[in-house]
Amino acid sequence: MNGMDGVASGLSGRSFASVDDFSNRELACVLAAAGDAADHRERYTDTCRGLIMASLFFEPSTRTRLSFETAMLRLGGQLVSAVDVGATSLAKGETLADMARVVGGYADLVVMRHPWDGAARVVAEYAGVPVINAGDGGHEHPTQTLCDLFTLQRERGALQGLRIALWGDLKYGRTVHSLAWALARFGATIVFRPGAGLAAPDYVLSKLASDYGGELVRGDVLSQSEGEGILPVDAVYVTPRSPHQLAMLPHISAQVELDRGLDALYVTRVQKERMQTPPGTKPAGYPVVDHKLLRTKGFEKSIVLHPLPRVDELSLDMDSDPRSLYFKQAHRGVPVRMALISLLMGRAPQLPQPPEWPQDDWQPVKHQPYLHDTGVKCPNERCVANQPSEQRYLTQRFSVVRGTPLRLRCRYCDHEVVAVAVATAEAYDEPASRRKYHPATSRWATDIREENLLVFASAQAAEAQGFRAAAGA
Ligand code: NCD
């Protein structure tokens, strides 16, 4: 036993729809196996002989699909694949659930990329075999995050406490959403530097602020030294762990962190395909990474990562710079995915040495499921739960996120609905005339037992359900 076996065997048979499906120890276990697969590929040869991976890519892909398929072939497994919705029964109106049940009966593992946010979660619930999310719309891309973390760990020596800037399209870029959440769990300071109008969505920042223990500082409280350097930034997430921060206000901590320079710059392209009116060229105000930027204060020691493909946000003159690691990062997709597949299939060889375990084993925060139907709808029109074909069997599903403000988080795509009014389900035992709702911000809201909590997105919604404003509400 090398200490990893328990964690490794705990991954067997699991799905990986979100980066938050695994604890920090589990992520460290995948990264340790990835290191082993990179350095000793022969130990993994044939570990998945006799197994079949279904490779379903319903959106364009080069790196993710080819590295998954290469990984499975290197493990001695085989593939069945579909690369176009038009060529599958989804085009005939088949639901994701039915497709999952069928493909899960053919293959031992399903890898899927799909344009709807939350699609991988649905497939994971119905396939009966492990499912890996290879990108679900603009939501998440957790295996790209494994490649990113693996590269950061190898190049920077450790994941703990990095300072990293996420750069470019932070709104639609699913890679940055998964990466931000994972980095926060390893105590990173994260700088958000979006293109104009492409700031990280509220649901991404809101989850950062509520689930990972750090502080989110919005850009407008940082000093705005226009032009050169790291600023202007949109937001900074600071971990509360460094000692100098204990006595400081969050925005001062953020400034101190920025002044220390960045370990890494994570550049992304404009995700034109997710925009209603895509810009013809690179939108105005989109930050370009080039040699000039990398010479400015704060960037001297930054390594440059990019999930690729690049368009023109990352200058070609960076390719010869030793700090540019994006092609290495892409090549590492194979050992990373070999490690992940062999662990989920319960076929990974034992590691020669235990990995360095993270200081904190962050565990996914367990928010209470929301138990009632009060007409609340996920606000994300690209959410799987809002697609007519899927609404035949999926219900809207939320978790209750306590805190300010009280809100419901979609269990498929993480978008949130802020509670405006609340009531207790005990009111259903009262005569209709005595059913009352209260403002979600009132003290009353905190007294309602979790299982009785009724949430409404507006006073009108509460009234439509037969509730009346409580006195003083
Ligand atoms: C990314 C994706 O598909 O989200 N590509 C990838 O998987 N490496 C990033 C992108 O397309 O911009």
Description:
29% of the residues lie in helices and 16% in strands. Strand 11 and strand 12 form a beta hairpin. About 1% of the residues have low confidence. The protein is globular, with a radius of gyration of 23 Å. It has 473 residues and is α/β, with parallel strands linked by helices. The protein starts with a helix and ends with a strand. The chain binds N-carbamoyl-L-aspartate (NCD). N-carbamoyl-L-aspartate binds next to helix 3 and helix 7.
Largest sheet: 6 strands, mixed
Distance between the termini: 61 Å
The portion of residues assigned to helices is 25-40%
* Rg for CA atoms: 23 Å
Number of strands: 17
Q: Determine the CATH topology of the largest domain.
A: Rossmann fold
Helix count from the secondary structure assignment: 14
Can you say what the CATH homologous superfamily of the largest domain is? Answer: Aspartate/ornithine carbamoyltransferase
CATH architecture field of the largest domain:
3-Layer(aba) Sandwich
Structural class: alpha/beta
Structural domain count: 3
Low-confidence stretches: 224-228
Which small molecules are bound? N-carbamoyl-L-aspartate
Widest sheet, order of strands = 7-8-6-5-9-10
How much of the sequence lies in strands comes to: 15-25%
What is the overall pLDDT average?
Answer: 91
What is the CATH top level name of the largest domain?
Alpha Beta
Shape: globular
Quick structural overview:
It contains 14 helices and 17 strands.
Secondary structure layout plus pairing:
Layout: H1 5-11, H2 24-39, E1 52-57, H3 63-74, E2 78-82, H4 96-106, E3 109-114, H5 119-127, E4 131-136, H6 142-156, E5 163-168, H7 174-185, E6 189-194, H8 202-211, E7 215-218, E8 235-238, H9 250-259, E9 264-267, H10 291-294, E10 303-305, H11 326-331, H12 333-344, E11 398-401, E12 407-410, E13 416-418, E14 421-424, E15 436-439, H13 443-447, E16 453-456, H14 459-464, E17 468-469
Helix pairs in contact: 1-2, 2-12, 3-12, 4-5, 6-7
The site of N-carbamoyl-L-aspartate (NCD) has 11 residues, from helix 3 and helix 7.
